[in-house]
Design brief:
2 copies of one chain form a homodimer. Chain A has 143 residues and is mainly alpha-helical. Chain A contains 6 helices and 2 strands; from the N terminus they run ααααββαα. In chain A, helix 2 packs across helix 4 and helix 3 packs across helix 4. The longest helix of chain A has 22 residues. Chain A is globular, with a radius of gyration of 18 Å. The two termini of chain A are 22 Å apart. At the A-B interface, helix 1, helix 2, helix 5 and helix 6 of A face helix 1, helix 2, helix 5 and helix 6 of B. Chain B binds a DNA duplex (30 and 30 nucleotides) through helix 2, helix 3 and helix 4.
Chain lengths: 143, 143
DNA sequence: TGTTTTTGTTATCAAAAGACAACTAAAGGA
DNA sequence: TCCTTTAGTTGTCTTTTGATAACAAAAACA
Protein backbone atom coordinates (compact mmCIF):
# COMPACT_ATOMS: atom_id res chain seq x y z
CA UNK A 1 0.00 0.00 0.00
CA UNK A 2 2.96 2.26 0.62
CA UNK A 3 3.26 3.05 -3.06
CA UNK A 4 -0.41 2.53 -3.76
CA UNK A 5 -1.34 5.26 -6.25
CA UNK A 6 -4.24 6.31 -4.05
CA UNK A 7 -2.04 6.89 -1.06
CA UNK A 8 0.11 9.56 -2.67
CA UNK A 9 -3.05 11.34 -3.74
CA UNK A 10 -4.42 10.94 -0.25
CA UNK A 11 -1.39 12.58 1.35
CA UNK A 12 -1.37 15.45 -1.11
CA UNK A 13 -5.10 15.88 -0.74
CA UNK A 14 -5.23 15.97 3.04
CA UNK A 15 -2.26 18.33 3.12
CA UNK A 16 -4.13 20.66 0.76
CA UNK A 17 -7.32 20.47 2.82
CA UNK A 18 -5.44 21.34 5.97
CA UNK A 19 -3.70 24.26 4.36
CA UNK A 20 -6.78 25.69 2.67
CA UNK A 21 -9.04 25.43 5.70
CA UNK A 22 -6.26 27.00 7.75
CA UNK A 23 -5.98 29.91 5.36
CA UNK A 24 -9.74 30.30 5.08
CA UNK A 25 -10.38 30.53 8.82
CA UNK A 26 -7.05 32.19 9.64
CA UNK A 27 -8.17 35.76 9.96
CA UNK A 28 -11.82 35.25 10.72
CA UNK A 29 -11.05 33.50 14.00
CA UNK A 30 -11.84 35.61 17.05
CA UNK A 31 -8.56 36.76 18.58
CA UNK A 32 -10.01 36.47 22.07
CA UNK A 33 -9.75 32.69 21.81
CA UNK A 34 -6.64 30.53 21.94
CA UNK A 35 -6.28 27.99 19.11
CA UNK A 36 -7.37 25.13 21.34
CA UNK A 37 -10.36 27.07 22.62
CA UNK A 38 -11.41 27.86 19.07
CA UNK A 39 -11.11 24.21 18.06
CA UNK A 40 -13.28 23.18 20.99
CA UNK A 41 -15.89 25.79 20.18
CA UNK A 42 -15.98 24.66 16.57
CA UNK A 43 -16.33 21.05 17.64
CA UNK A 44 -19.21 21.86 19.97
CA UNK A 45 -20.84 23.87 17.21
CA UNK A 46 -21.06 20.91 14.83
CA UNK A 47 -21.76 18.25 17.46
CA UNK A 48 -23.82 19.88 20.17
CA UNK A 49 -24.91 18.83 22.63
CA UNK A 50 -21.76 17.01 23.77
CA UNK A 51 -20.31 15.88 27.08
CA UNK A 52 -16.90 16.73 28.44
CA UNK A 53 -15.76 13.13 27.93
CA UNK A 54 -16.72 13.23 24.28
CA UNK A 55 -14.73 16.40 23.71
CA UNK A 56 -11.83 14.88 25.60
CA UNK A 57 -11.93 11.74 23.45
CA UNK A 58 -12.36 13.37 20.07
CA UNK A 59 -9.79 16.11 20.59
CA UNK A 60 -7.27 13.82 22.25
CA UNK A 61 -7.10 16.00 25.35
CA UNK A 62 -6.96 14.85 28.97
CA UNK A 63 -10.08 15.40 31.06
CA UNK A 64 -8.40 17.88 33.40
CA UNK A 65 -7.19 20.03 30.51
CA UNK A 66 -10.54 19.79 28.76
CA UNK A 67 -12.27 20.79 31.96
CA UNK A 68 -10.00 23.81 32.34
CA UNK A 69 -10.59 25.05 28.80
CA UNK A 70 -14.35 24.54 29.11
CA UNK A 71 -14.30 26.57 32.30
CA UNK A 72 -12.53 29.41 30.49
CA UNK A 73 -15.05 29.27 27.66
CA UNK A 74 -17.87 29.27 30.18
CA UNK A 75 -16.34 32.29 31.91
CA UNK A 76 -16.36 34.02 28.53
CA UNK A 77 -20.07 33.15 28.39
CA UNK A 78 -19.66 31.28 25.12
CA UNK A 79 -21.20 28.02 26.21
CA UNK A 80 -23.64 26.55 28.68
CA UNK A 81 -23.61 23.30 30.60
CA UNK A 82 -26.84 21.54 31.46
CA UNK A 83 -26.76 18.63 33.88
CA UNK A 84 -28.37 15.54 32.40
CA UNK A 85 -31.38 14.75 34.64
CA UNK A 86 -31.09 11.05 33.75
CA UNK A 87 -27.44 10.82 34.84
CA UNK A 88 -26.40 13.72 36.97
CA UNK A 89 -22.67 13.08 36.44
CA UNK A 90 -23.03 14.07 32.80
CA UNK A 91 -23.54 17.53 31.44
CA UNK A 92 -24.80 18.44 28.02
CA UNK A 93 -22.65 21.24 26.62
CA UNK A 94 -24.02 23.61 24.01
CA UNK A 95 -23.14 27.03 22.65
CA UNK A 96 -24.68 30.01 24.37
CA UNK A 97 -26.39 32.57 22.11
CA UNK A 98 -23.14 34.59 22.24
CA UNK A 99 -21.08 31.54 21.34
CA UNK A 100 -23.44 30.65 18.52
CA UNK A 101 -23.24 34.21 17.22
CA UNK A 102 -19.45 34.07 17.29
CA UNK A 103 -19.32 30.78 15.39
CA UNK A 104 -21.93 32.01 12.91
CA UNK A 105 -19.73 35.01 12.23
CA UNK A 106 -16.68 32.81 11.63
CA UNK A 107 -18.66 30.51 9.36
CA UNK A 108 -20.00 33.49 7.44
CA UNK A 109 -16.44 34.61 6.72
CA UNK A 110 -15.39 31.11 5.75
CA UNK A 111 -18.45 30.66 3.54
CA UNK A 112 -17.51 33.89 1.80
CA UNK A 113 -14.06 32.52 0.91
CA UNK A 114 -15.44 29.20 -0.19
CA UNK A 115 -17.99 31.03 -2.30
CA UNK A 116 -15.22 32.88 -4.09
CA UNK A 117 -13.66 29.57 -4.99
CA UNK A 118 -16.76 28.08 -6.56
CA UNK A 119 -18.88 30.97 -7.81
CA UNK A 120 -17.33 30.90 -11.27
CA UNK A 121 -18.29 27.25 -11.72
CA UNK A 122 -21.40 26.12 -13.52
CA UNK A 123 -24.30 24.65 -11.55
CA UNK A 124 -23.43 21.30 -13.01
CA UNK A 125 -19.82 21.52 -11.84
CA UNK A 126 -21.00 22.51 -8.39
CA UNK A 127 -23.21 19.44 -8.29
CA UNK A 128 -20.23 17.33 -9.30
CA UNK A 129 -18.29 18.76 -6.37
CA UNK A 130 -21.17 18.04 -4.05
CA UNK A 131 -21.23 14.43 -5.19
CA UNK A 132 -17.46 14.14 -4.77
CA UNK A 133 -17.70 15.46 -1.20
CA UNK A 134 -20.45 12.96 -0.43
CA UNK A 135 -18.54 10.08 -1.96
CA UNK A 136 -15.30 10.73 -0.10
CA UNK A 137 -17.04 11.31 3.17
CA UNK A 138 -18.92 8.04 2.80
CA UNK A 139 -16.03 5.87 1.60
CA UNK A 140 -12.94 7.31 3.31
CA UNK A 141 -13.57 10.10 5.76
CA UNK A 142 -16.32 8.41 7.73
CA UNK A 143 -16.23 8.55 11.51
CA UNK B 1 -23.71 31.70 0.46
CA UNK B 2 -24.14 31.30 4.17
CA UNK B 3 -26.86 28.74 3.67
CA UNK B 4 -25.54 27.56 0.35
CA UNK B 5 -26.04 23.78 0.34
CA UNK B 6 -22.41 23.26 -0.59
CA UNK B 7 -21.14 25.17 2.42
CA UNK B 8 -22.71 22.91 5.00
CA UNK B 9 -21.21 19.94 3.22
CA UNK B 10 -17.90 21.73 3.09
CA UNK B 11 -17.84 22.33 6.83
CA UNK B 12 -18.83 18.76 7.63
CA UNK B 13 -16.32 17.44 5.14
CA UNK B 14 -13.32 19.42 6.31
CA UNK B 15 -14.17 18.60 9.92
CA UNK B 16 -14.19 14.91 9.01
CA UNK B 17 -10.89 15.16 7.12
CA UNK B 18 -9.25 16.83 10.09
CA UNK B 19 -10.52 14.26 12.51
CA UNK B 20 -9.65 11.22 10.38
CA UNK B 21 -6.15 12.40 9.50
CA UNK B 22 -5.62 13.20 13.16
CA UNK B 23 -6.68 9.73 14.20
CA UNK B 24 -4.68 8.08 11.46
CA UNK B 25 -1.39 9.77 12.29
CA UNK B 26 -2.07 10.02 16.01
CA UNK B 27 -0.03 7.09 17.25
CA UNK B 28 2.41 6.73 14.40
CA UNK B 29 3.94 10.15 15.08
CA UNK B 30 7.43 9.96 16.59
CA UNK B 31 7.18 10.97 20.25
CA UNK B 32 10.56 12.66 20.08
CA UNK B 33 8.99 15.51 18.12
CA UNK B 34 6.69 18.22 19.39
CA UNK B 35 3.48 18.70 17.38
CA UNK B 36 4.84 21.80 15.67
CA UNK B 37 8.11 20.08 14.83
CA UNK B 38 6.20 17.16 13.33
CA UNK B 39 4.06 19.50 11.25
CA UNK B 40 7.16 21.25 9.93
CA UNK B 41 8.85 17.97 9.08
CA UNK B 42 5.74 16.81 7.24
CA UNK B 43 5.57 20.08 5.33
CA UNK B 44 9.21 19.85 4.29
CA UNK B 45 8.64 16.23 3.23
CA UNK B 46 5.97 17.12 0.71
CA UNK B 47 7.48 20.41 -0.46
CA UNK B 48 11.25 20.03 -0.31
CA UNK B 49 13.37 21.87 -0.93
CA UNK B 50 11.89 24.87 0.88
CA UNK B 51 13.25 28.04 2.46
CA UNK B 52 12.73 29.22 6.00
CA UNK B 53 10.52 32.06 4.74
CA UNK B 54 8.27 29.65 2.89
CA UNK B 55 7.81 27.53 5.98
CA UNK B 56 7.15 30.65 8.01
CA UNK B 57 4.51 31.84 5.52
CA UNK B 58 2.71 28.57 5.01
CA UNK B 59 2.61 27.56 8.63
CA UNK B 60 1.72 31.02 9.89
CA UNK B 61 4.73 31.16 12.20
CA UNK B 62 7.04 34.08 12.83
CA UNK B 63 10.53 33.88 11.38
CA UNK B 64 12.24 33.79 14.78
CA UNK B 65 10.09 30.92 15.98
CA UNK B 66 10.48 29.07 12.71
CA UNK B 67 14.22 29.54 12.90
CA UNK B 68 14.30 28.15 16.43
CA UNK B 69 12.31 25.03 15.55
CA UNK B 70 14.44 24.41 12.45
CA UNK B 71 17.53 24.66 14.62
CA UNK B 72 16.12 22.02 16.95
CA UNK B 73 15.27 19.74 14.03
CA UNK B 74 18.77 20.27 12.64
CA UNK B 75 20.27 19.40 16.01
CA UNK B 76 18.24 16.18 15.88
CA UNK B 77 19.88 15.60 12.48
CA UNK B 78 16.52 15.34 10.75
CA UNK B 79 17.12 17.97 8.13
CA UNK B 80 19.87 19.71 6.22
CA UNK B 81 20.24 23.30 5.10
CA UNK B 82 22.11 24.11 1.90
CA UNK B 83 22.94 27.71 1.12
CA UNK B 84 21.66 28.71 -2.30
CA UNK B 85 24.76 29.61 -4.36
CA UNK B 86 22.73 32.05 -6.46
CA UNK B 87 21.48 33.97 -3.41
CA UNK B 88 23.51 33.26 -0.35
CA UNK B 89 20.86 34.66 2.00
CA UNK B 90 18.56 31.79 1.13
CA UNK B 91 18.93 28.21 2.23
CA UNK B 92 17.30 25.20 0.67
CA UNK B 93 15.98 22.96 3.41
CA UNK B 94 15.51 19.24 2.82
CA UNK B 95 15.13 16.14 4.94
CA UNK B 96 18.30 14.31 5.91
CA UNK B 97 18.34 10.55 5.29
CA UNK B 98 17.34 10.10 8.95
CA UNK B 99 14.51 12.60 8.55
CA UNK B 100 13.33 10.96 5.38
CA UNK B 101 13.40 7.56 7.07
CA UNK B 102 11.33 8.90 9.95
CA UNK B 103 8.71 10.40 7.64
CA UNK B 104 8.64 7.26 5.50
CA UNK B 105 7.90 5.26 8.62
CA UNK B 106 5.04 7.59 9.58
CA UNK B 107 3.63 7.46 6.07
CA UNK B 108 3.87 3.68 6.06
CA UNK B 109 1.72 3.56 9.20
CA UNK B 110 -0.75 6.04 7.74
CA UNK B 111 -0.91 4.17 4.44
CA UNK B 112 -1.72 1.02 6.39
CA UNK B 113 -4.74 2.68 7.99
CA UNK B 114 -5.92 4.19 4.74
CA UNK B 115 -5.53 0.80 3.11
CA UNK B 116 -7.84 -0.73 5.68
CA UNK B 117 -10.46 1.82 4.77
CA UNK B 118 -10.44 1.11 1.06
CA UNK B 119 -9.30 -2.48 0.62
CA UNK B 120 -12.84 -3.85 0.63
CA UNK B 121 -13.83 -1.58 -2.27
CA UNK B 122 -13.85 -2.72 -5.88
CA UNK B 123 -11.21 -1.41 -8.28
CA UNK B 124 -13.91 0.65 -9.91
CA UNK B 125 -14.91 2.26 -6.65
CA UNK B 126 -11.28 3.03 -5.90
CA UNK B 127 -10.98 4.75 -9.26
CA UNK B 128 -14.07 6.76 -8.45
CA UNK B 129 -12.43 7.89 -5.22
CA UNK B 130 -9.29 8.80 -7.10
CA UNK B 131 -11.29 10.93 -9.50
CA UNK B 132 -13.13 12.60 -6.63
CA UNK B 133 -9.84 13.49 -4.93
CA UNK B 134 -8.53 14.96 -8.18
CA UNK B 135 -11.69 16.94 -8.80
CA UNK B 136 -11.84 18.50 -5.35
CA UNK B 137 -8.18 19.32 -5.29
CA UNK B 138 -8.47 21.01 -8.67
CA UNK B 139 -11.68 22.94 -8.03
CA UNK B 140 -11.64 23.76 -4.32
CA UNK B 141 -8.52 22.76 -2.46
CA UNK B 142 -6.00 24.27 -4.87
CA UNK B 143 -3.13 26.32 -3.51
C1' DT C 1 -24.94 -2.09 52.18
C1' DG C 2 -20.28 -1.39 50.78
C1' DT C 3 -17.32 -1.27 46.74
C1' DT C 4 -16.13 -0.04 42.12
C1' DT C 5 -16.67 2.58 37.99
C1' DT C 6 -17.82 6.62 35.54
C1' DT C 7 -17.76 11.61 35.08
C1' DG C 8 -15.90 15.48 36.15
C1' DT C 9 -12.99 19.14 39.07
C1' DT C 10 -9.02 21.56 41.24
C1' DA C 11 -4.28 22.49 41.77
C1' DT C 12 0.43 22.41 40.43
C1' DC C 13 4.44 21.87 37.57
C1' DA C 14 6.92 21.53 33.20
C1' DA C 15 7.25 21.94 28.36
C1' DA C 16 5.95 24.04 24.09
C1' DA C 17 4.78 27.82 21.42
C1' DG C 18 4.10 32.75 20.42
C1' DA C 19 5.59 37.76 20.50
C1' DC C 20 9.01 41.05 20.10
C1' DA C 21 13.43 43.59 20.02
C1' DA C 22 17.93 43.84 18.34
C1' DC C 23 21.06 42.05 15.34
C1' DT C 24 23.96 40.18 10.92
C1' DA C 25 24.77 39.45 6.14
C1' DA C 26 23.71 39.40 1.44
C1' DA C 27 21.36 41.48 -2.51
C1' DG C 28 19.27 45.24 -5.12
C1' DG C 29 18.87 49.80 -6.39
C1' DA C 30 19.61 55.10 -6.58
C1' DT D 1 28.97 54.25 -3.20
C1' DC D 2 25.31 54.52 0.22
C1' DC D 3 20.75 53.20 1.31
C1' DT D 4 17.05 49.91 1.47
C1' DT D 5 15.15 45.51 1.28
C1' DT D 6 15.25 40.62 1.97
C1' DA D 7 16.49 36.45 4.62
C1' DG D 8 17.62 34.73 8.62
C1' DT D 9 19.48 34.52 13.74
C1' DT D 10 19.75 35.15 18.82
C1' DG D 11 17.93 36.21 23.13
C1' DT D 12 14.23 37.07 26.32
C1' DC D 13 9.68 37.14 28.14
C1' DT D 14 4.85 35.57 28.29
C1' DT D 15 1.14 32.66 27.26
C1' DT D 16 -0.63 28.30 26.09
C1' DT D 17 -0.72 23.63 26.46
C1' DG D 18 0.23 19.06 28.43
C1' DA D 19 0.92 15.84 32.39
C1' DT D 20 -0.12 14.19 36.77
C1' DA D 21 -1.89 13.68 41.47
C1' DA D 22 -5.56 14.10 44.56
C1' DC D 23 -10.22 14.80 45.01
C1' DA D 24 -15.77 14.62 44.90
C1' DA D 25 -20.22 13.01 43.54
C1' DA D 26 -23.26 10.17 41.12
C1' DA D 27 -24.20 5.62 39.24
C1' DA D 28 -23.63 0.63 38.86
C1' DC D 29 -23.05 -3.47 40.91
C1' DA D 30 -22.06 -7.39 44.24
Amino acid sequence: MDNHPLFKKFVAFTAAVHQITNDITKDVKPETLTPVQYKILEYIAVSQPVTLSEISDCMHMSMPNTSRELRKLTEKELLVKVTDPADRRKQGITLSPEGQAMIDEVFRGAAQRVGERIEHLTAEQQQEIERALDLLQEKIFYV
